[in-house]
Amino acid sequence: MQPLPPSSTFSEAIHTSRTWLIISGALYFFSGVAAIIFPQLASIAIVQVISFLLIITGMASLLAAIFSKHVTHRLIHGLLAFLRILIGLLILKEVLVGLAIFTWILAAFFLLEGIFGIVAATRLKEHKYWPWLFLNAIIALALGIIILAQYHIMAPWIIGLLYGVNAIFGGIALLLLGCGGTIFPTIPPHSPQ
Question: What is the model's pTM?
């Protein structure tokens, strides 16, 4: 693993990439706004992209299994590739079923993150900021419970909404990184006279 570049090199890299950071940040931000305005459409689009990725990677894995020189691994890799293609095609054919499955997975993720986060936070009580870890875990646990309790209502839109929130904050972060200090000018410290 390569060491991190010095901060001056990192700053120079950011400065030379400013335009792309600003463009990608704006696109990310506006895609987040669109996902929040149309969460059902965003949820369906996300499921379709995942199904296409399953199909494409399954086909690549199948080709690798067919043309592999190691005969012992061909069968298992071929079966796994076929399974990936099949799941991708089924999700693409039944997008709403795929959306329901991904919503269950999302709820399970939040529940597990909450449970493990509570355990981790209680073990770190000596740390000054352990209550923040605990609060994060409680929120994750609550999100998992809310999604499960309101599953029949939330399934069509929760994935798109959460993507939208993430995209807005990610876009803002990229915009701020790309703009550097131009949005928030630095104020020199007040010197006593």
Answer: 0.71
